[in-house]
Design brief:
The protein is mostly helical and about 160 residues long. Helix content is about 50%, strand content about 0%. The longest helix is centred in the last third of the chain and has 14 residues, at about 110-125.
């Protein structure tokens, strides 16, 4: 499942929220998780929780669902986490890592889609077409530039 980068971590911070808002509306929101995680939202209806997330929660850096964390991936990608236990890494991600723009796991990347959609831009940056180079680009830059790793909308 695609994890929309946190508002604070986006490379294009000068963009207006209205440009990103349609993506926030499409983001998965587990209303049960959201209400349980944030005590100040207790008692809101599902509709009110969705409205809160779209209008406020996303920009506040609140998690929309219980993201599964891969501690091995996170240790390999973020050396400052090397001395933490698996549970500490999970807690760090949920409390700080998402807001810092960190990915909790290696995402699925559809090579053909990524090349078709961003091939010209990647070529201008000197990014090769191998699976490894495309993954490195997405994890190191593409994620925070809102470059999608796969088609997650209907054709």
């Amino acid at each position: 499942m695609y994890i929309l980068p946190s508002w604070n971590s986006l490379n294009s911070k000068n963009e207006h929220y209205n440009l990103i808002k349609p993506l926030v509306r499409m983001a998965y929101l587990d209303v049960e998780f959201y209400a349980k995680k944030y005590a100040d939202l207790a008692g809101l209806s599902d509709r009110e929780l969705i409205h809160h997330y779209v209008e406020h929660g996303y920009r506040e850096g609140r998690l929309s669902w219980d993201y599964k964390v891969d501690p091995v991936f996170m240790r390999l990608k973020y050396s400052d986490l090397n001395n933490l236990s698996d549970q500490q890494i999970t807690d760090h991600y949920h409390n700080f890592g998402y807001g810092e723009g960190r990915l909790p796991y290696m995402p699925h990347l559809e090579k053909e889609f990524y090349l078709k959609t961003y091939g010209h831009e990647l070529a201008l940056k000197g990014i090769g077409q191998s699976e490894e180079e495309l993954h490195q680009h997405f994890v190191n830059a593409g994620y925070l530039e809102l470059m999608f790793p796969y088609r997650f909308w209907c054709k």
